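Quick entry between incubations.
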Amino acid sequence: MVFGLLVTAVMGQRSLESAYRTTGKEVVAVFEAQREALQSCSAVLLQGRDEIGYGVVISADGYLLTKASLVLEVDGLAVTVGRERFKEVEVVAVDSAWDVALLKVAAEGLKPVEYAETSAVAQGTWVAANGATSRTRRRLLPGIISANSREIPPAGGAALGVVLKVEGGRLAIEEVAEHSGAADAGLKKGDVIVKVGGTAVAGVEEIAEALKESKAGDVVRVEYLRGEREFAVDVRVSTRGEMFQIEMDRNDMMSGDFSKRRSGFPRVIQHDILASAQTMGGPLLDLDGKCLGMNIARANRTENYAIPLEELQEIAAGLMKQVAKPAVESGE
Amino acid sequence: MGRMPLGWRRFDVSVIRLIVCFCGLSAAVAIAADGRLAVNDKLVPEGRKDLLVIQDALTGVLAKCRAATVCIEIGEGSGSGVIVSKDGLVLTAAHVSGRVGKKVKVKLEDGTELAAVTLGLVADSDAAMIRITDEGEYPFVEIDRDDSLRLGDWVFSLGHSGGFDEKRGSVVRLGRLVRIANATLQSDCTLIGGDSGGPLFDLSGRLVAIHSRVGQQLQVNMHVPMKIYLDNWEGMMGSEFLGEGPFAQKPVKGSGYLGIATEAAEDGGIRVTKVGRNSPALEAGIKLGDVILTMNETAVRSRDELRELLKELAAGDEVVLEVRRDGELKTLTFELGER
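Done. Structure below.
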């Protein structure tokens, strides 16, 4: 019978009806069990009526993980879990190396994500993740694991987030990038950088050399002069591509929207789901509905990255510790 | 709708109007060819069992298909290709190879670099061949010679998306065959620059098509079917330039550019008196005062003789110059630029 249907479709049409394409509704319907898992273990992040991303439910009492850069500058962030809407969302802690935020909503009895045994599944293995969402219903997009698990080094290298000029043999800050480690650490235009990571620096190349081994999220000691006084401060290192506009290449132009932060991850697994920058942050599930990782970046038209479940659990544990013991303001 | 050829870093995005010309689809679908998975004949997989059939088939043939998938490096850009014979015949796209008889580099998945030369191409359907010239035995895949692919079949693509990345490897994508036209197959396996020339496989691991171009929507991805290669096999093996554009342009004699000014030298040859900025000559390392003695093994005794030789050459052609510099002989090999 089914076979007969296909013949009809072939004879009657020159192309496959959209419902039967890989992301068509009839094919997606085969993944109903995984969709039901998404319904309970994924959260929808909203700004007003706009969906801006997804999250992973990690506790019954309302702790969620998501991609930090999706939520850090959002006013009026709301979250839907299951069918329930939460308008009070607290950003509890952030792991900037991985671009992961821990969120809290006042919920009870949520069904946390179940982790798979390992993220080391063969390429070609089916995976599923959040696609669009109706008000009450999660939708699913299927795909496969599509490349080797690996580190994604920071695009353009690691950087403090300052534009420098050499003035009379001194390295003066000309500009501080918004939301950079340098801005967070309080560096200002006119400050003169003396040492980075304990190494005296007098040129831009020497700073690059001092940061060569650094990864996004690492902290490096920066000693600087403001006026006559000398100060020292810990500065978080970020990927250059995240802080400064890097020129789009042709592949970027044909990729539609991609995640602004899409590099500088210590390890990712990769999949081919037809995702977008607005569908990151949610869980990546296997056919058992178990979590292989968390979607962290839409890199381009063909590549999406997810944090593997092993690292994700460590990140979650680290962030939960900060809940137990709020970080003490560092200061002299 | 405009289609983008996928040549990586080629900014001269020629927008190609694809003439979609559908052939009459025969009703002879009922006979399943050998090795054809039953799941292909279902409109949708029936539950988890069928999903696993697809997954098992794909994971079972992937390693072999991956081993035969190569990155093709040409000048600044790169594309993909796939080896189809033990001695290193590679199928790719015409807009990747670009021309006949050009030296290129082919990279295997493990990073091994091999010398290769472009053979023939079909300019109007984006098919091309390359031959690995380093001797050896190479991993290769079988071609689907029976035109056995049907609408809705599950297929997967491989390619060096965005260029070679040894840690990542080539990228695999799963999809279905969603449209069949005369010279084009369309799948919903997403492609991007760098994938051009890469292989599309059926679930048995047979090569069914080569990646060519994408539409604006993510789901619109175009491939050149094997039929085009099989129909033009001898011509391509014979290094013929077949068809007219839009995927490759015939070289135009006299379009080559060196970028130097010369004068006759007293003791034979011609002396370089100027080297143009950004010229091929500058890039090749030609210096002021060099005396050119031969080009492509023909003696050059005057500016006119050089001009005559250049008239027969086209942009992109390789030239071998023998020059005398400070009493020493040097040989410079490089490609002519576009005039």
